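Bench notes, bay 3.
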Amino acid sequence: MDFKVLLEKVTPALKVIARKRVLYGFYDADDLYQQMCLYLWQRFKEGMPIGINEAYVIKACEFHILNYLRKGHRMPGSYSLDAPMRDTGLTLKEVLPDMQQDLSSLVDTNINIDNIKKNLTQKEGRVFELLIKGETVRDIADKLGISHVMVVKYKKNIIKKSKI
């Protein structure tokens, strides 16, 4: 099966999974969907067994994203957008749409982060800064001298306040 065909078949299910998992971290649904696509691309490049049904592929992507969120940090790995995959010659650049940010949207992101920080308490602000740096919930708890449960509560408050 061609990767593009496989991706088109599983995309609706992957987007549903991504939307369900947004509350578990500071990644939006698009970030999680793209991470699942990269995971799927990597498996496909490595020669994912031919003939696997879509339900198996979707479940593998879901387990990957749960692990990704559980670890709480970006997974290392680099992928060339121009490297051909297998014998098809298809590249990641051809399969995934171009979502490159321009400078103005990057500035808007920084302004949004500053606006979020304004509405937070001192502890929530510190937790937010550490989360942005990629620290795990347990690492943050150790650094601030609080329980990981409190970090999770602060994180939920931050998410609520950021959606206002």
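Next record in the batch:
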Amino acid sequence: MPEVVHECPRRSSRVFTRIRVLAEGKNIRGRKFRETCHTIVVNAHGGLLYLNQELDSGAMLVLSNPFTQDELECRVVFLGGLGEKGQRVGVEFLTPAPHFWGLELAPADWTSSPAPANPSTASTA
């Protein structure tokens, strides 16, 4: 019998773009680092970027966007392969931040309000 895989829909659409950001945190050895890096893909809940630091999954980082002058705390949720540009690192913002990346034409689902968890119990007043 074939295995059926159900993929959960993403919380917000992805945008493939290269944005320069500053990442700060502690590497796998517990040493503080500060590194300018670039994104691969972003969404309202985080992004995927290249870093030249060895990190643990779950590590906390602070990302700064020099264009928007925003600074956000995020968690490492994915560690990909190491390449010539660095390691692919997936980060998740602690709270959604659709304006952090400074995209003029962000997808509509980045700013729309989430639907109620259970529509049958939602207020109709």
